[in-house]
Amino acid sequence: MASHQQPIPRPWVLDLILPALVVLLITSHVLALVYWIYRLATEKQPQGSRFPFFAEMSPASHPLLTLGLLTRRDTEVKLPRSTRVKNKTAAPIQITAEQILREARQR
């Protein structure tokens, strides 16, 4: 004899609240992403910065700066002075990069 078992009813929380909560979380994340992109697009960029990654950041927003591991002087990029080439004629003996590396390894 097959006994007739009644199906176990699902809790109302799973039917109503859980899908609504998932939709609410997805919506809030999408809105936060759109707002973040808007803020990046409308933010004024600092002019004349040597190293734009740290120039845009306040000291409170970067962990290495807040811990005292890096200072502003450490984050600046110091470019070498550009030198002018005076003699642009070709050398009588040409040497390749491979030859320079081979000679450096032999020493």
How would you characterize this protein structure?
With 107 residues, the protein is mainly α. Among the domains are: 12-43; 47-77, no CATH class. It contains five helices and no strands. The chain has helices at residues 12-42, 52-55, 63-66, 72-75, 97-106. The radius of gyration is 32 Å and the shape is elongated. The N and C termini lie far apart (95 Å). The model has no long low-confidence stretch (mean pLDDT 78).
Please tell me the overall pLDDT.
Answer: 78
The Rg value, from CA coordinates, equals 32 Å
Q: H/E order of the elements?
A: HHHHH
Tally of contiguous helical segments: 5
- What structural category do the secondary elements indicate? mainly alpha
Number of strands: 0
Main sheet record: none
Global morphology: elongated
Low-confidence stretches: none
Task: Tell me the fraction of residues in β-strands, as a range.
Answer: under 5%
Distance from N terminus to C terminus (CA atoms, Å) equals: 95 Å
Amount of helix: 40-55%
Keywords: Membrane, Transmembrane, Transmembrane helix
Transmembrane segments: 16-38
